[in-house]
Amino acid sequence: MNNIEFFGKTDVGQVRSNNEDTFMINAGARFCLVADGMGGAAAGEMASQIFAQTAADIFDTVLPASEQTLVDQVQAAFLQANDRILAHAAKFPEHKGMGCTAELLAFTSTGFVVGHMGDSRTYRLRQGNFKQLTKDHSLVQDQIDQGLITEAQARSHRMRNIILRAVGVRPSPALDTLRGPIFSGDLFLLCSDGLTDLIEDQQIVKVLQNNSGLAAKVNRLVEIANSAGGKDNITVVLAKIS
């Protein structure tokens, strides 16, 4: 069985007064997650925490018997969190509109499963090839897909923060799941848009390819995002296969 090393960090950034991001690492259960909350009056922070707690409730330290079991667990985490957030907003009307984007990465002994909703992202660095595994559920990504704007234009688009899918906004949301094998040396990155809105992929790759440990890589990515303005909360989680 492959060993997996994790490290994560969240930072409030340079502009916001509170941090609505949440991350969780459970090395024993071989999963990690990043959630980016939305909604005022601390509701966004609560939504991301509900997602994390729901995932913790579903995963335990017993490895799933199969990849399909893992897929089922990932799907259950998103759907149950969605229901819990909706129920909370119904009970507390001042939190109406709360929700979160989320990435959940979990491993079997030989493979990985990613659950994705929103514009947080999951990447993989494998043998020098840096690949974005997820696709943003956002208005600007739709416009990119239609050829209406370029990726460069999307970075400064005035509607770049409009999300088309999120956890806890409406019943039974569509969830993207991805799966694949893992190999020694693979490095997975989960992050909120507070990182990717401010750092180009080339900068991220340069940090990930240096010889420092995971903690140093994570801290450096957060530092660069803050140096670039830190306009949002910044959350970074790395998982390395050995």
Protein model, in words:
This protein has 242 residues and is α+β, with helices and mostly antiparallel strands. It has a single domain, classed as PPM-type phosphatase domain (Phosphatase 2c, domain 1), CATH 3.60.40. Helices cover 33% and strands 28% of the residues. The chain has helices at 43-58, 67-91, 139-145, 151-155, 193-196, 201-208, 214-227; strands at 4-11, 21-26, 31-38, 99-107, 111-117, 121-126, 129-132, 176-181, 187-191, 234-241. The strands form 2 sheets. The protein has a 5-stranded antiparallel sheet with strand order 1-10-9-6-7. A 5-stranded antiparallel sheet has the order 2-3-4-5-8, with helices on one face. Helix 1 (43-58) runs antiparallel to helix 2 (67-91). The chain is globular and about 45 Å long. The model has no long low-confidence stretch (mean pLDDT 92).
